[in-house]
From TrEMBL:
EC number: 1.1.1.23
Residues the entry annotates as binding Zn(2+): Q241, H244, D327, H385
Binding site residues for NAD(+): Y114, Q173, N196
Protein known as: Histidinol dehydrogenase
Family under the similarity heading: Belongs to the histidinol dehydrogenase family.
GO BP, one annotated term: L-histidine biosynthetic process
Organism in which the protein naturally occurs: Candidatus Aramenus sulfurataquae
Function field: Catalyzes the sequential NAD-dependent oxidations of L-histidinol to L-histidinaldehyde and then to L-histidine.
Protein backbone atom coordinates (compact mmCIF):
# COMPACT_ATOMS: atom_id res chain seq x y z
CA UNK A 1 0.00 0.00 0.00
CA UNK A 2 1.30 3.48 -0.86
CA UNK A 3 0.53 6.56 1.26
CA UNK A 4 1.38 10.12 0.34
CA UNK A 5 1.55 11.95 3.61
CA UNK A 6 4.49 12.37 5.99
CA UNK A 7 3.91 9.59 8.58
CA UNK A 8 3.06 11.07 11.94
CA UNK A 9 3.59 7.89 13.98
CA UNK A 10 5.84 4.85 13.53
CA UNK A 11 3.79 1.84 12.44
CA UNK A 12 4.54 0.37 15.83
CA UNK A 13 5.39 1.84 19.14
CA UNK A 14 6.25 -0.37 22.05
CA UNK A 15 4.11 1.71 24.42
CA UNK A 16 1.14 -0.28 23.11
CA UNK A 17 2.51 -3.49 24.66
CA UNK A 18 3.99 -2.11 27.89
CA UNK A 19 1.27 -3.54 30.15
CA UNK A 20 1.51 -7.00 28.65
CA UNK A 21 5.31 -6.95 28.74
CA UNK A 22 5.30 -5.73 32.33
CA UNK A 23 3.37 -8.87 33.28
CA UNK A 24 5.91 -11.03 31.42
CA UNK A 25 8.82 -9.34 33.19
CA UNK A 26 7.20 -9.78 36.61
CA UNK A 27 6.41 -13.42 35.85
CA UNK A 28 10.04 -14.15 35.01
CA UNK A 29 11.24 -12.30 38.13
CA UNK A 30 8.93 -14.39 40.30
CA UNK A 31 9.05 -17.79 38.61
CA UNK A 32 12.50 -17.85 36.96
CA UNK A 33 13.23 -20.76 34.62
CA UNK A 34 9.69 -22.12 35.01
CA UNK A 35 8.33 -18.91 33.51
CA UNK A 36 10.83 -19.15 30.65
CA UNK A 37 9.62 -22.65 29.78
CA UNK A 38 5.96 -21.60 29.92
CA UNK A 39 6.39 -18.35 27.95
CA UNK A 40 8.57 -20.02 25.31
CA UNK A 41 5.90 -22.63 24.80
CA UNK A 42 3.23 -19.89 24.61
CA UNK A 43 5.00 -17.49 22.24
CA UNK A 44 7.56 -19.61 20.42
CA UNK A 45 5.70 -22.89 20.33
CA UNK A 46 8.65 -25.05 21.37
CA UNK A 47 9.40 -26.95 24.52
CA UNK A 48 12.44 -25.54 26.25
CA UNK A 49 14.29 -28.68 27.33
CA UNK A 50 17.18 -26.62 28.68
CA UNK A 51 17.31 -22.83 28.96
CA UNK A 52 21.05 -22.85 28.35
CA UNK A 53 22.30 -24.40 25.10
CA UNK A 54 24.63 -27.28 26.04
CA UNK A 55 28.21 -26.60 24.84
CA UNK A 56 28.05 -29.80 22.81
CA UNK A 57 24.96 -28.55 20.95
CA UNK A 58 26.68 -25.24 20.16
CA UNK A 59 29.74 -27.08 18.85
CA UNK A 60 27.73 -29.59 16.83
CA UNK A 61 25.49 -26.91 15.34
CA UNK A 62 28.53 -24.81 14.39
CA UNK A 63 29.94 -27.80 12.52
CA UNK A 64 26.83 -27.82 10.32
CA UNK A 65 27.67 -24.37 8.96
CA UNK A 66 28.40 -24.27 5.25
CA UNK A 67 32.08 -23.39 4.62
CA UNK A 68 31.04 -20.53 2.33
CA UNK A 69 29.01 -18.88 5.10
CA UNK A 70 31.80 -19.49 7.60
CA UNK A 71 34.32 -17.76 5.30
CA UNK A 72 31.88 -14.88 4.75
CA UNK A 73 31.54 -14.44 8.52
CA UNK A 74 35.32 -14.50 8.97
CA UNK A 75 35.71 -11.84 6.25
CA UNK A 76 33.01 -9.59 7.73
CA UNK A 77 34.42 -10.05 11.25
CA UNK A 78 37.69 -8.33 10.21
CA UNK A 79 35.84 -5.37 8.65
CA UNK A 80 33.65 -4.76 11.71
CA UNK A 81 36.54 -5.29 14.14
CA UNK A 82 38.67 -2.73 12.28
CA UNK A 83 35.86 -0.16 12.42
CA UNK A 84 35.51 -0.46 16.22
CA UNK A 85 39.28 -0.58 16.77
CA UNK A 86 39.61 2.59 14.71
CA UNK A 87 37.31 4.52 17.07
CA UNK A 88 38.27 2.85 20.38
CA UNK A 89 39.24 5.70 22.73
CA UNK A 90 42.67 5.74 24.41
CA UNK A 91 43.01 6.43 28.16
CA UNK A 92 43.91 10.07 28.55
CA UNK A 93 45.19 12.42 31.24
CA UNK A 94 46.06 16.07 31.78
CA UNK A 95 45.75 18.76 34.35
CA UNK A 96 45.88 22.46 35.33
CA UNK A 97 45.98 24.64 38.48
CA UNK A 98 47.89 21.97 40.37
CA UNK A 99 45.25 19.31 39.69
CA UNK A 100 46.04 16.16 37.66
CA UNK A 101 43.03 14.43 36.07
CA UNK A 102 42.24 11.86 33.41
CA UNK A 103 39.95 9.15 32.01
CA UNK A 104 40.50 5.40 32.14
CA UNK A 105 38.09 3.54 29.81
CA UNK A 106 36.84 0.40 31.59
CA UNK A 107 34.78 -2.31 29.85
CA UNK A 108 31.40 -3.32 31.24
CA UNK A 109 32.08 -6.58 33.09
CA UNK A 110 29.10 -8.76 32.18
CA UNK A 111 27.05 -8.09 29.02
CA UNK A 112 23.87 -9.75 27.74
CA UNK A 113 23.31 -9.63 23.98
CA UNK A 114 19.86 -10.17 22.54
CA UNK A 115 19.86 -11.63 19.03
CA UNK A 116 16.44 -11.54 17.35
CA UNK A 117 15.08 -14.79 16.11
CA UNK A 118 11.40 -14.57 15.45
CA UNK A 119 10.45 -14.56 11.81
CA UNK A 120 14.07 -14.58 10.64
CA UNK A 121 17.46 -15.43 12.12
CA UNK A 122 20.02 -12.69 12.72
CA UNK A 123 23.59 -14.02 13.15
CA UNK A 124 24.72 -10.68 11.68
CA UNK A 125 23.34 -9.02 14.82
CA UNK A 126 25.55 -11.20 17.02
CA UNK A 127 28.56 -9.94 15.05
CA UNK A 128 27.33 -6.35 15.39
CA UNK A 129 27.13 -6.57 19.19
CA UNK A 130 29.75 -9.20 19.98
CA UNK A 131 32.65 -7.66 18.09
CA UNK A 132 32.55 -4.21 19.76
CA UNK A 133 32.14 -6.06 23.08
CA UNK A 134 35.33 -8.00 22.39
CA UNK A 135 37.16 -4.87 21.15
CA UNK A 136 36.14 -3.12 24.39
CA UNK A 137 37.52 -6.00 26.47
CA UNK A 138 34.22 -7.19 27.99
CA UNK A 139 35.04 -10.17 30.22
CA UNK A 140 31.75 -12.12 30.10
CA UNK A 141 29.39 -12.18 27.13
CA UNK A 142 26.00 -13.92 27.41
CA UNK A 143 23.60 -14.30 24.49
CA UNK A 144 19.84 -14.91 24.33
CA UNK A 145 18.20 -15.86 21.05
CA UNK A 146 14.99 -17.81 20.43
CA UNK A 147 15.02 -21.16 18.65
CA UNK A 148 14.64 -24.82 19.58
CA UNK A 149 18.04 -25.55 18.09
CA UNK A 150 20.87 -23.02 17.99
CA UNK A 151 21.20 -21.61 14.47
CA UNK A 152 24.50 -22.93 12.99
CA UNK A 153 25.80 -19.44 12.12
CA UNK A 154 24.92 -18.13 15.59
CA UNK A 155 26.67 -21.17 17.07
CA UNK A 156 29.80 -20.55 14.98
CA UNK A 157 29.92 -16.85 15.87
CA UNK A 158 29.30 -17.63 19.56
CA UNK A 159 32.38 -19.86 19.59
CA UNK A 160 34.39 -17.25 17.69
CA UNK A 161 33.37 -14.57 20.20
CA UNK A 162 33.96 -16.92 23.16
CA UNK A 163 30.39 -16.36 24.36
CA UNK A 164 30.23 -17.68 27.94
CA UNK A 165 26.64 -18.96 27.81
CA UNK A 166 23.94 -18.99 25.13
CA UNK A 167 20.27 -19.15 26.16
CA UNK A 168 17.60 -20.44 23.78
CA UNK A 169 15.01 -17.86 24.77
CA UNK A 170 13.58 -14.83 23.10
CA UNK A 171 11.25 -11.91 23.48
CA UNK A 172 10.53 -9.97 26.65
CA UNK A 173 11.15 -13.03 28.80
CA UNK A 174 14.76 -13.25 27.60
CA UNK A 175 15.35 -9.60 28.45
CA UNK A 176 13.80 -10.05 31.90
CA UNK A 177 15.90 -13.17 32.55
CA UNK A 178 19.17 -11.39 31.71
CA UNK A 179 18.14 -8.31 33.67
CA UNK A 180 17.25 -10.13 36.91
CA UNK A 181 18.79 -13.59 36.55
CA UNK A 182 17.08 -16.93 36.96
CA UNK A 183 18.29 -20.31 38.23
CA UNK A 184 20.09 -20.69 34.87
CA UNK A 185 20.37 -17.26 33.24
CA UNK A 186 23.13 -15.00 34.56
CA UNK A 187 22.17 -11.51 35.70
CA UNK A 188 24.13 -9.08 33.54
CA UNK A 189 25.24 -5.46 33.96
CA UNK A 190 24.05 -4.23 30.55
CA UNK A 191 21.72 -5.60 27.88
CA UNK A 192 22.22 -4.73 24.22
CA UNK A 193 20.43 -5.75 21.09
CA UNK A 194 17.58 -5.08 18.71
CA UNK A 195 14.25 -6.79 18.56
CA UNK A 196 10.53 -6.42 18.13
CA UNK A 197 8.20 -4.27 20.19
CA UNK A 198 8.06 -6.86 23.01
CA UNK A 199 11.84 -6.95 23.26
CA UNK A 200 12.15 -3.16 23.20
CA UNK A 201 9.34 -2.67 25.71
CA UNK A 202 11.09 -5.12 28.03
CA UNK A 203 14.41 -3.30 27.65
CA UNK A 204 12.65 -0.02 28.43
CA UNK A 205 11.08 -1.51 31.58
CA UNK A 206 14.21 -3.23 32.96
CA UNK A 207 16.35 -0.16 32.23
CA UNK A 208 15.53 1.02 35.77
CA UNK A 209 17.64 -1.88 37.09
CA UNK A 210 20.16 -2.68 34.37
CA UNK A 211 22.03 -0.86 31.62
CA UNK A 212 20.59 -0.90 28.14
CA UNK A 213 22.02 0.32 24.84
CA UNK A 214 18.85 2.15 23.77
CA UNK A 215 15.74 1.37 21.77
CA UNK A 216 16.40 -0.57 18.55
CA UNK A 217 13.03 -1.77 17.42
CA UNK A 218 11.53 -2.57 14.05
CA UNK A 219 13.57 -1.44 11.10
CA UNK A 220 13.17 2.02 9.58
CA UNK A 221 14.50 3.37 6.28
CA UNK A 222 14.07 6.85 4.86
CA UNK A 223 15.43 7.51 1.38
CA UNK A 224 15.90 11.00 -0.02
CA UNK A 225 16.21 10.74 -3.80
CA UNK A 226 16.45 13.22 -6.65
CA UNK A 227 15.90 12.70 -10.39
CA UNK A 228 19.48 11.32 -10.82
CA UNK A 229 18.67 8.22 -8.71
CA UNK A 230 17.71 4.88 -10.23
CA UNK A 231 14.02 4.15 -9.44
CA UNK A 232 14.55 0.37 -9.53
CA UNK A 233 17.53 0.46 -7.14
CA UNK A 234 15.70 2.78 -4.73
CA UNK A 235 12.67 0.48 -4.76
CA UNK A 236 14.97 -2.48 -4.13
CA UNK A 237 16.47 -0.75 -1.07
CA UNK A 238 12.99 -0.11 0.33
CA UNK A 239 11.78 -3.65 -0.35
CA UNK A 240 14.99 -5.08 1.17
CA UNK A 241 14.25 -3.49 4.52
CA UNK A 242 10.63 -4.46 4.08
CA UNK A 243 11.79 -8.07 4.52
CA UNK A 244 11.98 -7.38 8.26
CA UNK A 245 8.24 -7.60 8.53
CA UNK A 246 5.09 -5.51 8.32
CA UNK A 247 6.18 -3.22 11.18
CA UNK A 248 9.08 -1.90 9.06
CA UNK A 249 8.87 1.87 8.50
CA UNK A 250 9.61 2.79 4.86
CA UNK A 251 9.64 6.35 3.53
CA UNK A 252 10.77 7.80 0.19
CA UNK A 253 11.14 11.58 -0.04
CA UNK A 254 11.79 13.38 -3.33
CA UNK A 255 11.39 16.86 -4.83
CA UNK A 256 10.72 15.10 -8.17
CA UNK A 257 7.14 13.92 -8.70
CA UNK A 258 8.32 12.13 -11.83
CA UNK A 259 10.84 10.15 -9.77
CA UNK A 260 8.15 9.17 -7.24
CA UNK A 261 5.88 8.09 -10.10
CA UNK A 262 8.70 6.06 -11.68
CA UNK A 263 9.38 4.19 -8.39
CA UNK A 264 5.75 3.29 -7.67
CA UNK A 265 5.38 0.34 -10.09
CA UNK A 266 8.34 -1.40 -8.44
CA UNK A 267 6.74 -1.22 -4.98
CA UNK A 268 4.55 -4.20 -5.79
CA UNK A 269 4.54 -6.13 -2.52
CA UNK A 270 2.20 -5.92 0.48
CA UNK A 271 4.27 -3.47 2.51
CA UNK A 272 3.19 0.08 3.44
CA UNK A 273 5.34 2.73 1.74
CA UNK A 274 5.18 6.48 2.35
CA UNK A 275 6.01 8.55 -0.77
CA UNK A 276 6.52 12.20 0.16
CA UNK A 277 6.89 15.02 -2.40
CA UNK A 278 8.81 18.08 -1.18
CA UNK A 279 9.56 21.49 -2.65
CA UNK A 280 13.32 20.86 -2.71
CA UNK A 281 16.10 18.83 -1.05
CA UNK A 282 16.34 21.24 1.89
CA UNK A 283 12.75 20.49 2.76
CA UNK A 284 13.46 16.76 2.20
CA UNK A 285 16.23 16.81 4.81
CA UNK A 286 14.03 18.77 7.22
CA UNK A 287 11.37 16.04 6.92
CA UNK A 288 14.01 13.33 7.40
CA UNK A 289 15.47 15.08 10.47
CA UNK A 290 11.99 15.26 11.95
CA UNK A 291 11.48 11.51 11.33
CA UNK A 292 14.97 10.74 12.80
CA UNK A 293 15.15 7.37 11.02
CA UNK A 294 17.25 4.37 11.89
CA UNK A 295 18.64 4.19 8.32
CA UNK A 296 18.86 7.19 5.99
CA UNK A 297 19.92 6.90 2.34
CA UNK A 298 20.90 10.01 0.36
CA UNK A 299 20.35 8.85 -3.23
CA UNK A 300 21.11 12.24 -4.75
CA UNK A 301 23.61 13.86 -7.11
CA UNK A 302 25.65 15.55 -4.33
CA UNK A 303 25.15 13.41 -1.18
CA UNK A 304 28.15 14.79 0.73
CA UNK A 305 26.65 18.26 0.51
CA UNK A 306 23.29 16.99 1.79
CA UNK A 307 25.01 15.00 4.56
CA UNK A 308 26.04 18.31 6.18
CA UNK A 309 22.34 19.07 6.80
CA UNK A 310 21.52 15.67 8.33
CA UNK A 311 21.01 15.89 12.13
CA UNK A 312 19.18 12.74 13.18
CA UNK A 313 19.79 9.26 11.84
CA UNK A 314 21.42 6.04 13.05
CA UNK A 315 23.34 5.30 9.87
CA UNK A 316 23.54 7.31 6.63
CA UNK A 317 24.45 5.81 3.26
CA UNK A 318 25.43 8.11 0.40
CA UNK A 319 24.82 8.05 -3.35
CA UNK A 320 24.60 4.54 -4.79
CA UNK A 321 25.56 2.90 -1.45
CA UNK A 322 22.82 0.37 -0.57
CA UNK A 323 21.61 0.59 3.07
CA UNK A 324 21.80 -3.22 3.25
CA UNK A 325 25.61 -2.95 3.16
CA UNK A 326 25.43 -1.49 6.68
CA UNK A 327 23.31 -4.47 7.73
CA UNK A 328 26.10 -6.90 6.90
CA UNK A 329 29.60 -5.85 6.02
CA UNK A 330 30.45 -2.14 5.79
CA UNK A 331 31.95 -1.85 9.27
CA UNK A 332 29.67 0.56 11.17
CA UNK A 333 26.98 -1.16 13.21
CA UNK A 334 23.50 -2.21 12.12
CA UNK A 335 22.17 -2.08 15.67
CA UNK A 336 20.65 1.35 15.31
CA UNK A 337 18.20 3.61 17.16
CA UNK A 338 14.53 3.52 16.13
CA UNK A 339 11.33 5.18 17.40
CA UNK A 340 12.95 8.62 17.09
CA UNK A 341 15.83 7.80 19.45
CA UNK A 342 18.25 8.90 16.69
CA UNK A 343 17.56 12.45 17.97
CA UNK A 344 19.90 11.72 20.88
CA UNK A 345 21.54 8.34 20.26
CA UNK A 346 23.63 6.75 17.51
CA UNK A 347 24.22 3.15 16.52
CA UNK A 348 26.16 0.68 18.68
CA UNK A 349 29.91 1.19 18.86
CA UNK A 350 32.72 0.07 21.15
CA UNK A 351 31.72 3.05 23.37
CA UNK A 352 28.51 1.21 24.36
CA UNK A 353 30.68 -1.38 26.14
CA UNK A 354 33.01 1.11 27.84
CA UNK A 355 32.67 3.37 30.91
CA UNK A 356 34.79 6.54 31.20
CA UNK A 357 36.22 6.21 34.77
CA UNK A 358 37.74 9.58 35.63
CA UNK A 359 40.43 10.16 38.26
CA UNK A 360 41.76 13.27 40.10
CA UNK A 361 45.01 13.81 42.00
CA UNK A 362 45.26 17.08 43.97
CA UNK A 363 48.37 17.04 46.15
CA UNK A 364 49.08 20.80 45.94
CA UNK A 365 46.12 22.41 44.12
CA UNK A 366 46.02 26.08 43.31
CA UNK A 367 44.68 27.95 46.40
CA UNK A 368 42.46 30.27 44.38
CA UNK A 369 40.69 27.30 42.73
CA UNK A 370 40.15 25.49 46.05
CA UNK A 371 38.87 28.72 47.56
CA UNK A 372 36.38 29.00 44.69
CA UNK A 373 35.21 25.45 45.41
CA UNK A 374 34.74 26.27 49.08
CA UNK A 375 32.79 29.46 48.29
CA UNK A 376 30.37 27.55 46.08
CA UNK A 377 30.00 24.75 48.65
CA UNK A 378 29.15 27.34 51.31
CA UNK A 379 26.70 29.04 48.89
CA UNK A 380 24.91 25.70 48.52
CA UNK A 381 24.89 25.28 52.29
CA UNK A 382 27.32 22.37 52.25
CA UNK A 383 29.50 23.77 55.03
CA UNK A 384 31.25 20.48 55.81
CA UNK A 385 32.00 19.99 52.09
CA UNK A 386 33.78 23.33 52.22
CA UNK A 387 35.56 22.41 55.45
CA UNK A 388 36.65 19.03 54.07
CA UNK A 389 38.28 20.78 51.11
CA UNK A 390 39.92 23.41 53.25
CA UNK A 391 41.17 21.02 55.92
CA UNK A 392 43.72 19.43 53.61
CA UNK A 393 45.19 22.55 52.09
CA UNK A 394 44.70 25.40 54.64
N1 LIG B 1 16.91 -1.49 15.00
C1 LIG B 1 17.84 -2.37 14.76
O1 LIG B 1 19.01 -2.12 14.97
C2 LIG B 1 17.44 -3.75 14.29
C3 LIG B 1 18.43 -4.67 13.91
C4 LIG B 1 18.02 -5.96 13.54
C5 LIG B 1 16.67 -6.30 13.57
N2 LIG B 1 15.77 -5.33 13.92
C6 LIG B 1 14.35 -5.61 14.03
O2 LIG B 1 14.21 -6.64 15.02
C7 LIG B 1 12.93 -7.22 14.83
C8 LIG B 1 13.03 -8.71 15.05
O3 LIG B 1 11.71 -9.08 15.35
P1 LIG B 1 11.29 -10.61 15.39
O4 LIG B 1 9.88 -10.62 15.87
O5 LIG B 1 11.62 -11.23 14.10
O6 LIG B 1 12.26 -11.29 16.45
P2 LIG B 1 12.47 -11.00 18.00
O7 LIG B 1 13.50 -11.95 18.47
O8 LIG B 1 12.68 -9.54 18.24
O9 LIG B 1 11.08 -11.36 18.66
C9 LIG B 1 10.65 -12.70 18.68
C10 LIG B 1 10.21 -12.99 20.09
O10 LIG B 1 9.08 -12.22 20.40
C11 LIG B 1 8.27 -12.95 21.31
N3 LIG B 1 6.87 -12.77 20.91
C12 LIG B 1 6.38 -13.00 19.69
N4 LIG B 1 5.05 -12.74 19.69
C13 LIG B 1 4.72 -12.29 20.94
C14 LIG B 1 3.54 -11.85 21.57
N5 LIG B 1 2.40 -11.82 20.91
N6 LIG B 1 3.59 -11.50 22.87
C15 LIG B 1 4.76 -11.54 23.54
N7 LIG B 1 5.92 -11.95 23.01
C16 LIG B 1 5.91 -12.32 21.71
C17 LIG B 1 8.66 -14.42 21.20
O11 LIG B 1 9.04 -14.88 22.47
C18 LIG B 1 9.82 -14.44 20.24
O12 LIG B 1 10.93 -15.16 20.75
C19 LIG B 1 12.47 -6.85 13.42
O13 LIG B 1 11.41 -5.91 13.53
C20 LIG B 1 13.72 -6.17 12.82
O14 LIG B 1 13.33 -5.11 11.95
C21 LIG B 1 16.11 -4.09 14.30
N1 LIG C 1 18.31 -3.64 8.72
C1 LIG C 1 18.42 -4.23 10.06
C2 LIG C 1 18.47 -3.09 11.03
O1 LIG C 1 17.27 -2.45 11.08
C3 LIG C 1 19.65 -5.09 10.22
C4 LIG C 1 19.62 -6.37 9.46
C5 LIG C 1 20.05 -7.58 9.90
N2 LIG C 1 19.87 -8.49 8.94
C6 LIG C 1 19.31 -7.84 7.90
N3 LIG C 1 19.15 -6.51 8.22
ZN1 LIG D 1 18.05 -5.07 7.20
Amino acid sequence: MIKYEVPKERLNSFSQVLDKVSEIVEKVRKEGDRALVELTERFDKYKLISVKAPQEEVENQAKLLDAKVREAIDEIYLQLEEFHLSIKPPNSGGGRMGIEYGVIWKPVNRVGIYVPGGAKTYPSTLLMAGIPARVAGVKEIYVSTPGEKVDPAIAYISLKLRVKELYKIGGAQAIAAMAYGTETVKKVDKILGPGNVYVQAAKFLVSKDVGIDGIEGPTELVIIADETADPRQVALDLKAQGEHGESTFLVLISPSQKFLDDVKPYLDDNRTYYLVKTKDLDEAVRVANELSPEHLSLAVKSPTELLRLVENSGAVTLGKTPPAIVDYCAGPDHILPTNGWARFKGGITVFDFLKPVTYVIAEKPNKKLIEAGKVLADYEGFRVHAESMGARYD
